[in-house]
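Sharing a chain and its predicted structure for anyone who wants a worked example. Both blocks are below, sequence first, tokens second.
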Amino acid sequence: MALSKGSGQCLRKSGGSSRFSTKIRRVFPRSIILPEKRSFFLFGARGTGKSTLIHQRFPRQTTWFVDLLSASQEDAYSRDPDLFYRQVLQLGPAIDTVVIDEVQKVPKLLDSVHRLIFETSLQFVLTGSSARRLRRGAANMLAGRAFERSLHPLTCSEVGDAFDLDRVLSWGSLPEVFALNSTDRREYLEVYARTYLKEEVWAEHLIRQLEPFRKFLEVAAQQAGQPVNYARIARDVGVDGKTVKEYFQILEDTLVGFLLEPFLGSTRKRVHKAPKFFFFDIGVSRALAHQMHAPPIASTSYYGDLFEQFLVLEMLRQEAYLRKGYRFYYLSDERGEVDLVIERPGQPHALVEIKSTIEIRPDKLRSLASMGRSLEGCEMFCLSRDPRSQRMGSIQALPWQQGLREI
């Protein structure tokens, strides 16, 4: 996997004139490959390291930065969107890149970017925490003249020898948590959850009432990785089913989670059709569920749920960086459940069962074998904490690290 420059310095919010101050952090090389010359959008939830990556990748001497999280800059450009266009035309010849951080704050700037792509040779880098919100707001998405990339929390390969499975299951893998002790990690994640409500949802007028949405977040986080029961969640939260679906849409729009749809093809069995919902980071999910004081304990069902979430997230993150065109589903019917069905262009479907056990036995894989037989030509895998690589009939039982590489 090719690597781009990573986050050697962590740029943090401060109370001064800039929202960033620098502290030395361990370098975690990021696996995402950014376009060298072409303009592009870089989307990702807050805290995934977009600004850090951009500041590392693009030197200040040749880059002009616009920070729309600065209230004064947001206000100035909101009042006069053409101000940006005039300023860019006045940039000196030393500048070859223009960065707009959190572009969804003033989407009108994209009209000026569109013009400037034609009129200049500058590269435009546009970061944001909501691609769908821009599109739903009819923003100018530059008609294909800017590529799109997504940045996620750290993958296990990016963390390298600092990776610790139990720590990630407890705290997630946002870059900042690796620089904090356990007490500060808990506070950081709890503050993150509150900040999400304040800055991403309430301040953007995405909901009319805050309290039902706050309760929804807790319920949705407690049921992360499970098939979504809209009616039950609606009863628990005290809203109707349509509102619950709108709430889930907000989570997807702000990139803090995604729906994993059921696989409906090539099987005659009666399948479950409700999607599953996964939050983008385990630590944030646990904070929203108010479960930070309950450490995951191996051999418990809670640990198994978190391990499944971890591997699903890990696969989707690596696919986002490798860009192989894989599509992910889950399959559940009267015979049991397959945690992931992966459509791989030019290759057989991969059926993946995820087990947190440290010892895999054939009797635990009967439902996977049965369901695999109904999908002709598929490959079946079981990924677990068992350190042994084994062949059990038509199923490859692999240590989870090896399974990630092979799949």
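Comments welcome. The CA atoms of residues 118 and 347 lie 40 Å apart.
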